[in-house]
Amino acid sequence: MTNAKISPRAQKVLRNKKLSAAIATALAKNSHASARGGVILKAGNESLVIRTASAQNAVKK
Amino acid sequence: MNIALSAVIIFILLLPPIAFYFAFSSIGRFPKSGPKLGLFEGLMLSSIVAGLLHATVLFFIHDRISFDVLAVLLGGDLKTFGQVAPNETFKPLFESFIFYCAGLTVSSIILGFVCRLIVQHSGLHARSELLRLYNKWWYLFNGYKVDGFINSANPVEFDILFIDVLVNTNDGTMLYSGYLIDFVCSGEILERLYLSETIKRDFKKGEMNEKGNILVNVSGDPLEIDGDTMVVPFSTVINMNLHFITFSTNIDNVLQNTDISDETSKTVK
Q1: Which CATH topology does B136-248 take?
Q2: Which of B160, B201, B257 sits opposite A6 (nearest CB)?
Q3: Which residues contact B211 (CB under 8 A, 6 or more apart)?
Q4: Do A31 and B267 touch (CB under 8 A)?
Q5: pTM for the full model?
Q6: Which of B205, B201, B208 is nearest to B218 (CA)?
Q7: With an 8 Å Cβ cutoff, are A28 and B164 in contact?
């Protein structure tokens, strides 16, 4: 049992060590970009869009 | 001994509002800390609320109430107790008193739970300091303190919290980044953060120029820390930067793909 919010989608990501580490590295490397809106991670043909709350606000506004 | 009896009876009479308070705000994880009152202020406040509560309930009770017996017991003068309440009349009086106090205390607990549910579901706890149910760290880590959502009843929606923590170490100031998987609080004080997939960086990067070795305001190269969970004591933390992360819906397709590139585009439009 954890006290922090981790959605089922995030739990799937955390179970995949390679992907979660890649996302963490991308976010850490691009902390200025993640503050602006988020980062995109390429995984083969797929692009994983990782948005931050500020980006969601911008979309809503 | 008589003073002890008076204290026990007063405590029983003060119990319903205290039971309501604990049922409303002091249960569950991360409850907000109680009001900072001294013993005297606490007793006075409880007495006023209990007095109002008992007066309200007694308004609806039309049976005869033997206040003279209660007054003798509260005064602690047990010499005249035998004249006021002989044995045969004291038994039903005592039973009625216990049922009254027990009923009122249980009703207060139920009312406290009901009020808590109403405040939780209406979101009032996030907007009103008086009705706040959790400590302030709980609101921060659950997305209630995000631009555009402050003072709103609902938190921002996110999948996981990614956190940059600036930590004072013996080797200087370091930046740790990772997913927040747990946190521990003691009252309103944050004690520990548990991070997963933690990355460590120098807060400032050392560079050489014509003046020699200088520190520039750019964080150093990320270094992945081995291990599953990193514990950061909050006493060593200077500040924190929170990123409330949402993954796109194609996460299942991405998870099937093992070819993950380190190349990342820098902004999302």
Answers
A1: SH3 type barrels. (2.30.30)
A2: B160
A3: none
A4: no
A5: 0.80
A6: B205
A7: yes
Q: Name residue A5's amino acid.
A: K
Write down the domain spans for chain B.
2-127, 136-248
Closest residue of chain B to A32, computed from CA coordinates? B266
Which amino acid, residue B57?
V
CB B19 within 8 A of CB B113: no
**Whole-angstrom distance, CA of residue B248 vs CA of residue A49:** 5
Contact B199 A43 (CB under 8 A): no
Residue B255's closest CA among B245, B247, B263? B247
Q: Are B13 and B54 in contact (CB under 8 A)?
A: yes
Determine the distance in angstroms separating the CA of B147 from the nearest CA of chain A, rounded to an integer: 7
Cα–Cα distance list, A59 to A37, B83, B261, B268 (Å) = 10, 80, 27, 11
Q: Which two tokens stand for residue B233?
A: 């004591």
ipTM for the predicted complex: 0.81
Closest chain B residue to A21 measured between Cα atoms? Answer: B197
Cβ atoms of residues B152 and B158 within 8 Å: no
Closest by CA to B160, choosing from B144, B180, B145, B175, is B180
How do residues B54-73 score in pLDDT, each as one tens digit?
Answer: 999 988 888 877 787 778 77
pLDDT digits (tens, 9 = 90+) for B223-243: 888 888 999 999 999 989 888
How many Å apart are CA A22 and CA B230, to the nearest integer? 17
